[in-house]
């Protein structure tokens, strides 16, 4: 078995896969793709023709799109189980995944300059993003019951998707204090060794900052 994850350490889409591979205890090779142009090189385009990270190669089989990769890993490497079997619980996990990808993550990109310590940001767009994020956080808070994770007693693929975005919100000034269940859920996740092992390094942050500054200067 040769598992290779092509990723960028600053990307939540990549990090959700990195965490899953670690949580499942799989052996894998981690290949960093620098987003300063490496994603357009022929070798990587042969794996990911849309030049997006992450991408996974498993013994020659290529998979792109992070949610598809998560489903692939869960189906092929089902231990530990990371998706609930109960219909309602499965729906909860899926809703968390898709709401994070389709609603929360696009709203958070408004705060990327702030996250990287850069100036800028349209006040009107920032306010709109805050309102969207508030709706998402209320939705997620209401999905959490007395179990420690979404629809489960154990960590699921809902956690690896939402849990690589929600805990970062306080960094850009969005408090989780109004969402006690979600706040406690975040604390549980960031205490895990898999979250700590995959946290972006200051060097990675600086590299992404320089790439963004170069793009903004054009």
UniProtKB/TrEMBL annotation:
Which PANTHER family has this protein been placed in? GLUTATHIONE S-TRANSFERASE GSTA, GLUTATHIONE S-TRANSFERASE-RELATED
Say which domain of life the source belongs to.
Bacteria
Provide the protein name: Glutathione S-transferase domain-containing protein
GO molecular function ontology, one term from the record:
transferase activity
Task: List, alphabetically, the SUPFAM superfamilies matched.
Answer: GST C-terminal domain-like, Thioredoxin-like
GST C-terminal domain span: 86-218
Q: Which Pfam families match?
A: GST_C, GST_N_3
Q: Which UniProt keywords apply?
A: Transferase
Q: Does the keyword Protein biosynthesis apply?
A: no
* Organism field: Nostoc commune NIES-4072
InterPro entries hit by this protein: Glutathione-S-Trfase_C-like, Glutathione-S-Trfase_C_sf, Glutathione_S-Trfase, Glutathione_S-Trfase_N, GST_C, Thioredoxin-like_sf
- In this protein, which residues make up the domain named GST N-terminal? 1-81
């Amino acid at each position: 078995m040769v598992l290779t994850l092509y990723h960028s350490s600053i990307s939540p889409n990549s990090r959700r896969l990195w965490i899953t591979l670690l949580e499942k205890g799989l052996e894998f090779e981690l290949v960093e793709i620098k987003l300063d142009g490496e994603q357009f090189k022929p070798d990587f385009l042969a794996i990911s023709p849309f030049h997006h990270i992450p991408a996974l190669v498993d013994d020659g089989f290529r998979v792109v799109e992070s949610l598809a990769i998560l489903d692939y890993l869960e189906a092929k490497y089902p231990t530990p189980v990371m998706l609930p079997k109960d219909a309602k619980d499965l729906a909860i996990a899926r809703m968390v995944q898709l709401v994070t990808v389709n609603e929360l993550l696009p709203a958070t990109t408004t705060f990327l300059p702030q996250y990287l310590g850069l100036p800028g940001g349209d006040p009107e767009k920032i306010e709109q993003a805050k309102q969207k994020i508030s709706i998402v956080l209320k939705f997620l808070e209401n999905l959490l019951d007395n179990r420690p994770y979404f629809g489960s007693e154990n960590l699921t693929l809902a956690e690896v998707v939402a849990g690589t975005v929600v805990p970062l919100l306080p960094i850009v000034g969005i408090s989780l204090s109004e969402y006690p269940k979600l706040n406690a859920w975040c604390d549980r996740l960031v205490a895990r060794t898999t979250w700590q092992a995959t946290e972006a390094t200051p060097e990675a942050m600086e590299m992404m900052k320089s790439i963004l500054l170069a793009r903004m200067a054009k």
